[in-house]
## 1
Amino acid sequence: MPTTPSAGPSRALSFSGAAALYAAARPGYPPEVFVALEEAAGRTLDTLRAVDVGAGTGIATRELVRRGAHVVAVEPGEGMAAELRRSLPEVPVVRGDGNRLPLADDSAGLVTYAQSWHWTDPARSWPEAARVLRPGGVLALWWNVADHRAPWVAEQNARIRRHLGADHGVHGTPAPGTASRAVGLPEKGTVSRRLPWARRVSVATHLDNLAGHSAFLVRGGEHAERDRRFFAEEGDRLRELFPDGAVEERYVVDLTTTTV
Ligand SMILES: C[S@@+](CC[C@H](N)C(=O)[O-])C[C@H]1O[C@@H](n2cnc3c(N)ncnc32)[C@H](O)[C@@H]1O
């Protein structure tokens, strides 16, 4: 059963207090994302210097490294950066921020933001990415959006919204087909794709994945008992829906690339 950590310093940095939970339960990204990056760059990843911004615990960083990219990770959160250093000791990790990248001009062929662009101010992060990219380089932003075409996903999201009393659930943008969070980019050179995929995980991992979203992480200890009951009921429902105990989480990756 997930436990809800007490409120962190801010929503953007709330993940740092729950880095191990995040690393264990968050979904990765399908291979099609990395194929699309190579298509956009016109080069294979093993020829590219990449900067993974808002790298977190390194979920996207690991995939870039696996495909041979030379990656520098940029991450503002202390806990996330520590988890990344622990799991990928060969990757340089710079504590920094997408609004002010601690990197030289024209120093990368690829800048990636996996589920982190929305924490930046695009009026600052776009010029920063363009400055760090060499001519012809690619900025890539993507998010795993839960696929609300699966009825149980939409119903769970409605329950989460009621529970949190928030405008949004914890599934990212409300549904595929609604506005992307890839905002602030020039129209010229920008291409968007939607890549559906799925993973099967235990009920416990699925609940930990939900609990590791910032909407839960920022809640104070006074909500802990109510949250505990919410996750217990959600677990019961899921075990009825998936009697073999394997939850099929369905996602659409919302991927946008811009060539400078
Ligand atoms: C949802 S996590 C994504 C982590 C990782 N990229 C992944 O794919 O799992 C968002 C990350 O953005 C980081 N972040 C918050 N504010 C940021 C900013 N202004 N610039 C860059 N990263 C930021 C957080 O610390 C967190 O690690």
## 2
Amino acid sequence: MTSIEDLETPVVTIDLAVMEANIRKMQDYCDRHDIRFRPHIKTHKIPEIAELQRAAGARGITCQKLGEAEVFAEAGFEDIFISYNLIGTAKLKRLMELSRKARISVAADSAAVVGGIAEAAQAAGLEIPVMVECDTGAGRTGVQSPRQALELALLIDRTTGVSFQGLMTFPTSMEGTPPFLAEALDLLSGAGLTAHIVSGGGTPQSWRVHEIPQINEHRAGTYVYNDSNTVAAGTATLEECAMRVRMTVVSRPTEDRAILDGGSKTLSAERLLWKDPQYGTILEYPEAVIYHYSEEHANVDLAACGRKPAVGEPVTVIPNHCCVVSNLHDQVIGVRDGQVEVVWNVKARGLVR
Ligand SMILES: Cc1ncc(COP(=O)(O)O)c(C=O)c1O
């Protein structure tokens, strides 16, 4: 048995009991409200963890990129939604190959994207289910109005090679999403079209999804680990953060400064979204502020700490954004009661195409 103390740092650990409780809590919430849950695997990129989500009751998975979907299809996942506009001959060829192995649905927000998929699908003799992406307030991708959602749905419906599956949005917004979806669904039903799936997403809104009656599917990713951002947003507590990066104090150049043995290459350089700049939370020293990163160093301000760490002392950092941290590491270590239980390869790590 290897103890967590024996692990060389910096190292990404996953508290298995916390992660299992996070999986259970989200699935129970969705089950209680009769919402299908389709976890987004971009957070962990590990098929074994998706398997735990599936065993808990998840119906299908979400991937952001085709490369992730290829890894998860290979691992035996049969119902995969790619929540991304897929463009270009190379990707469409891969999409067709993948669609022969698993049921792949995709998002689209323009006639250009739908046209490309339809053309490739016709040539391959396939039909690809398509979700119309709606921008319900985030200002990222998505059609800009319910009427545009209808127009794209009608185009999908009359085009060979694609079938209209429903509507999706990200992130679900308590303000913008309900009126947009209500109007879009009215327009669709007026035109004789049915949105079988109406899918929202995002961990911060998770516990309020049932207040939006139009939504029948939820996609969350971050919830599985949680991070300093979800804590700052009030969605989770620090105790519910399963990803814990174990690091070592390698220098104490001044009374008030500590340096940890990793920086942006270990924890990413993501700032906290809802608070002052701060690059992660140190569990043992909650008053300490990680105020600066370089590639392999994290600068910590200890001025507010009564007790201060010595050189060589290990500390536990809850990163700001766990999904990006996953993408930086080949492996994560599953830990229970301070002992290593499993080592997982982050199989879809780095797959951004
Ligand atoms: C399309 C889509 N759906 C769902 C999610 C999951 O969001 P979260 O990580 O907040 O749970 C994301 C996150 O980036 C996303 O882009």
